[in-house]
Write a structure and sequence with these properties.
Elements: E1 2-9, H1 19-34, E2 40-45, E3 48-53, H2 60-67, E4 73-81, H3 86-96, H4 98-103, H5 122-136, H6 138-150, E5 156-157, H7 173-184, E6 189-190, H8 194-197, H9 202-217, H10 237-252, E7 258-260, H11 267-275, E8 285-288, H12 295-300, E9 305-308
Parallel strand pairs: 5-6, 7-8, 8-9
Antiparallel strand pairs: 1-3, 1-4, 2-3
Helix pairs in contact: 3-5, 5-6, 7-9
């Protein structure tokens, strides 16, 4: 594995006919900063600056600190070079990013394919590498999903979930398990891409995913309301705790409805109090409206929250 530094210039790409002059000046400044540290090879290619150690005595960590201070460098990061092969790229990503992925709460794969002869597009390569990393570090996906749910942000898993159905009418058992696991993690949606965009069995792929999702969502034993998620640390502590207690009571006592009745709150705010738990309770929530009710407030209510007017 060959380590290097990848630097992105600032506003040089905005220059016109004199752009080449600024690029040469930036390379010269970087070389001047690196000269006291050791022998490095500096290459400017595709609007990026690559710094590679020319011998074992060159210290990339010291080079990192030195180049950060060069005027015109917007970003700098450690990187590694590998051959142009999707499996080689994936293997290197797994080994090179192992420590970072183990502790990561989120990650994103972005690809910029400069060689158009590469058999995959930039989007396809990003999806492939992202899927392989998600499988290699499954706990990362779980942490991302939980973090999104706690922050009340929609989360979608859309990484080659039924990829074998691009060429096969039936998925593998592992793929079905991936879809089921994603739904058990309480994602908002699971999504197909290549299976329906250029696959041979798009209708079968959609039907398979819908069938699996329907079965998991009907599993009341293992897929009930998530009342144990800790939302107190990011929401109003009193509201979150009371909402959780109300949902827990509605499940354990099998009540028919939850009534929210507090003067001074409009309809939307009252109903959203129960929604703090993020998982909709099994009983409907009925909110007392003390202010004028209109369509805008109705649209602001969480799912299955019923307005009530005297």
């Amino acid at each position: 594995m060959k380590d290097l530094l990848l630097c992105k210039p600032g506003e040089i790409f905005l220059k016109g006919l004199n752009k080449h002059y600024f690029e040469e000046r930036l390379v010269a400044n970087v070389k001047r900063r690196l000269k006291p540290i050791g022998h490095f090879r500096v290459t400017y290619l595709q609007s990026a600056l690559y710094i590679e150690a020319a011998d074992d005595a060159a210290d990339l960590d010291a080079a990192y600190d030195a180049v950060r201070k060069v005027f015109g460098i917007a970003t700098i990061t450690r990187a590694a070079a590998c051959e142009k092969d999707k499996d080689a790229i994936t293997a290197l990503a797994k080994s090179y990013l192992h420590d970072a992925m183990t502790a990561a709460h989120s990650f994103k794969v972005e690809t910029k394919r400069s060689d158009k002869r590469f058999p995959m597009t930039s989007i396809e390569l990003s999806q492939y590498v992202g899927g392989e990393l998600a499988e290699a570090f499954p706990n990362t996906q779980r942490r991302i999903v939980e973090k999104c749910i706690c922050a009340k942000r929609p989360v979608i898993i859309a990484t080659q979930m039924l990829y074998s159905m691009v060429k096969s009418p039936r998925p593998t058992r592992a793929e079905v398990s991936d879809v089921a696991s994603a739904i058990y993690e309480r994602v908002d949606a699971v999504m197909l891409s290549g299976e329906t965009a250029n696959g041979l069995y798009p209708v079968e792929a959609v039907a398979t995913m819908a069938r699996v999702a329907r079965e998991i969502e009907n599993d009341e034993v293992n897929n009930g309301p998530n009342i144990d998620m800790n939302l107190v640390r990011i929401n109003n502590e009193i509201t979150a705790q009371l909402a959780r207690s109300a949902v827990r009571a509605s499940i354990n006592l099998r009540v028919k409805a939850i009534v929210i009745d507090k003067p001074g709150l409009n309809l939307a705010n009252g109903a959203i109090g129960i929604g703090e738990i993020t998982s909709i309770p099994t009983a409907p929530a009925i909110a007392q409206a003390y202010y004028r009710y209109d369509g805008e407030r109705r649209r602001s209510l969480p799912l299955d929250h019923t307005p009530y007017k005297k």
